[in-house]
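quick one
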Amino acid sequence: MKVAILTGGGDCPGLNAVIRAVVRRGEQHGFEFIGIREGWRGLIESNHFRLNRDAVSGILHLGGTILGTSRTNPFKKEGGPQRVLKTLEDTGIAAVVAIGGEDTLGVAKKLSDMGVHVVGVPKTIDNDLSGTDYTFGFDTAVSIATEAIDRLHTTAEAHNRVIVCEVMGRHAGHIALHSGLAGGADVILVPERPIDLEEVCQHVRTRLARGKRFSIVVVAEGAQIQKGKDEVQTAELDDFGHVRLGGIGAYLAKEIERRTRVETRATVLGHIQRGGTPTARDRVLGTRYGVFAADLVRDGRWGQMAALHGDAIVAVSLEEATKELHLVDPKLYEVAEVFFG
Ligand code: F6P
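structure w/ 6-O-phosphono-beta-D-fructofuranose:
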């Protein structure tokens, strides 16, 4: 059986670990593999190459994806789904392993409903996909952000500054919450809760009153000010209707300095959180997901996704995985709040 693998959406540490695991396990099942270039775009444009054990050798520890990725949505392209079906037919591909987040797996779900044999693997540093406790890539992003916060701490203290650290997290604040907790942030701001600027400044003032003349504020890029939201987003939309985020950190820094009179700087971690080598945890999780996905194909369990429940890898439907976003647990946010100010 010919099986295609594709990676879609933002790249994520651990993608190569998954690709390697799918191929290694799948070859044991007798599958032949086709690597699709740049996500769904590769199936629309019939851009692919033969993938085998040699091609996935030595990639376990590498960031990025040997397949390339894109944010292409076939359902937003003229004749897109039909062209995907034609590529599958012309190349004799019998099944597709789609590695992606809510957008990529949303497309997988629609194609599955049209009869395409698809299985999914949950990817995103944001960890905002439902149906699984964790996506791979999240642990690496949190580790990178935590290390950055540790570094910002020492320089903030040396200069008596407030430093606002903007991390990724479009709809959900998992990275901000986990790295902020791990890094001992004095305030953590997430998309799930509108920002109250006065409250943020009050935490900085409380610390000042205790003789702490520096503070660390961690903010997810998707967090929003109660008013003035439009000031920190671009109007540009991608194929899935998302704006490009960024700017909330700089906006907050300006406002905190103006209101508290403490010198305030902003650092945006951006794509540093997505690049480079995955943590051991993400390599292990990605490998377990990949092996399980190959087994889902062997068993013909179409429309299913590998997921982590507790410490077990299980199958959940793509429908369950994509029907809503996995947001931060308010109870965990309450734990973080104990340390604010
Ligand atoms: O979806 C993952 C993510 O890293 C988000 O946190 C972020 O908003 C977005 O991708 C950035 O996308 P791009 O790399 O396309 O600018």
